[in-house]
Specification:
globular; binds molybdenum atom; Sulfite Oxidase, Chain A, domain 2; binds ligand MTE; 22% strand; 316 residues
Length: 316
């Protein structure tokens, strides 16, 4: 395997000049932050998630839903992350000391070059955008979160998948010594999820490194996670260490656990009930009562064409 240090990649190869300049400005500002002791990846901020760390966002306002934002406190204390706990209110405390530096993300499978990226290089490789997305869990709760990240499509193009690649698979870190949930057999670890290549290339698919302008808290999938807003939350793998381009549709962790309940597509669909409950309505965290669930979570206009001609009851 060829491991190309991310540093060896010329930024002019991959970003337009204006972004290159922005990146240099960003580096200059993070250098001064480092000098002032405020931005040190190995420092104690990982230990204390209450100490919030700002990201430099270069673009906002492009994909923004008008719904009221879920309070930061709720979005970061009611979190699903089985590697730590199946209890959504327990994850924050159990992940408090989880270290996300050093961290690398490797690209494998059907690509021109198998590359490993260092997370800090990756975060600065693309201009960061803020997007306010609706977010819907298969368990019928939802949130509205301002994510910070970069389009997955930009990263996929950078990886140069070969013409044989049809799917892209995402793998979460396997670290049972640091993730108590992985010492149980609740899922087949490591957690994996996958997308069809055309889904991954859709501009709505986001690689998130932050929320509410801050570095992603551990409980929300630090240091890097997917956010696919038109699909149920479980498709959006957290704490990703590996991305693999493949020819055949991969079996994800949830499908291995229960193929009847969790399909490959997992598109939000009020008309296709989960075998044990309806998907027609949802509880918006922080609000009273329930609201109707929208087809594709309200993103039909943007992504509906990806599934034209497909039977959505069969391809759930
Ligand atoms: N590695 C990993 N990724 C994961 C999960 C998980 O348990 N492990 N849970 C998924 C589910 S079911 C949901 S709803 C979302 C929750 O994201 P949030 O807690 O940041 O809202 O993360 C998804 N990604
Ligand atoms: Mo979920």
């Amino acid at each position: 395997m060829l491991i190309k240090k991310a540093q060896a990649i010329k930024f002019s190869e991959i970003t337009e000049k204006k972004h290159y300049i922005n990146r240099r400005q960003f580096l200059a500002s993070s250098a001064s932050l480092a000098a002032s002791g405020l931005f040190i990846p190995h420092s104690d901020f990982q230990k204390d998630s209450r100490q919030r760390q700002k990201l430099t966002v270069e673009k906002r306002g492009e994909y923004v839903v008008q719904d009221r934002l879920t309070p930061y406190e709720e979005a970061t204390t009611y979190t699903n992350f089985y590697e730590f706990s199946t209890g959504k209110r327990s994850v924050k405390e159990l992940s408090r000391d989880f270290r996300t530096r050093p961290w690398s993300l490797s690209v494998e499978g059907l690509v021109e070059d198998k590359i490993t990226f260092d997370i800090d290089e990756l975060i600065h490789m693309f201009p960061l955008e803020e997007r306010i997305y609706r977010w819907r869990c298969v368990e019928a709760w939802s949130m509205v979160i301002p994510w910070v990240g970069f389009p997955l499509a930009d990263f996929v193009k950078k990886c140069q998948p070969t013409s044989k690649a049809q799917f892209v698979e995402f793998e979460t870190i396997y670290a049972p010594a640091r993730m108590p949930g992985q010492r149980t057999r609740v899922l087949d670890w490591p957690y994996t999820e996958a997308l069809r290549l055309d889904e991954a290339l859709h501009p709505l698919a986001l690689m998130a490194v932050g929320l509410y302008g801050d570095i992603l808290p551990n409980q929300n999938g630090a240091p890097i996670r997917l956010v696919i807003p038109w699909k149920y939350g479980f498709k959006s793998a957290k704490s990703i260490v590996k991305i693999r381009f493949v020819e055949k549709m991969p079996k994800s962790s949830w499908r291995k656990a229960n193929p009847r309940e969790y399909g490959f597509y997992a598109n939000v669909n009020p008309d296709v009930k989960h075998p044990r409950w309806s998907q027609a309505r949802e509880r918006r965290i922080g609000e009273e009562g329930k609201r109707p669930t929208l087809i594709f979570n309200g993103y039909a206009e943007e992504i509906g064409h990806l599934y034209s001609g497909m039977d959505l009851k069969k391809n759930y």
